[in-house]
Amino acid sequence: MKRFSALLLLLLTLNLYGLGQANRAADLETVLQAMDKAAAGFRTLQTDFTWDQFTRVVSSHDYQSGVMDFRRSNKDVEMAAVIKQPILKYVLFKGGVVQVYEPRINQVTEYDVGKNRADFQTYLVLGFGGGGHELMKSFNLRYVGTEQAGGVNAYKLELAPKSEKARATFSLITLWIDPSRGLAVQQKFAEASGDYRLAQYTNIQLNQKLPKDAFSLHTEGKNPRIVKPRGP
């Protein structure tokens, strides 16, 4: 009888484990479908943001906040951000080039993403107009559950890069997806070193008309110095 009870308990445990696996797969599919639906209708997005850059070796947090705009046309993505705190900066990604304007020193730093443009855009649209099932091409996905973030009970999704090159940049990416809109309200980009960037988004405005000059670099009418760092 004891042996039978033990076998029955083991069988029930295995069944529950299989049920749990099936439920997680169904939940993951729900998240991906929500993201696919958002991606199908995505044109523009504006949001307030807060970035927390954590450096493990010195246990320090560097906080930045401001406003960010996104626009997608076919496969091309444009992004513009105004970092308001702690120091005013303007960031623009357009045509495969990242430009950072610092009014304090009147300087524009330009980075050409070149052949890495597609990879760069993949990270840029995570949770912001990027399709859910598209993620399966580049990441191993795990649905963790739900968690409060951005004022909603968000889907929590972990993305582990498949390629060794990508893992050298970020070992794990976590997205918190608003179930009703299929958009990210929070992101965490973690490095193997323990460093990470936690991004939080509020006041998200989807498919609203943006200013005509939203995706132009605002240099305040000055003639800034242009710096183009060389790649490795």
Task: Give the tags.
232 residues, alpha+beta, 12-stranded mixed sheet, outer membrane lipoprotein receptor (LolB), chain A, globular, 22% helix
Supply the number of helical segments.
Answer: 3
Question: How are the strands of the biggest sheet laid out side by side?
Answer: 7-8-9-10-11-1-2-3-4-5-6-12
User: Mean pLDDT across all residues, rounded?
Assistant: 87
Distance between the termini: 69 Å
Task: Report the portion of residues in β strands.
Answer: 35-45%
Main sheet summary: 12 strands, mixed
Which stretches are low in confidence, meaning pLDDT under 50 for 5 or more residues running?
7-12, 16-23
CATH class: Mainly Beta
Q: Identify the overall geometry.
A: globular
* Count of discrete domains: 1
Percent of residues in helices: 10-25%
The CATH topology turns out to be outer membrane lipoprotein receptor (LolB), chain A
The appropriate CATH architecture is: Clam
* Secondary-structure element series: HEEEEEEHEEHEEEE
Structural class designation: alpha+beta
Q: Could you name the CATH homologous superfamily?
A: Lipoprotein localisation LolA/LolB/LppX
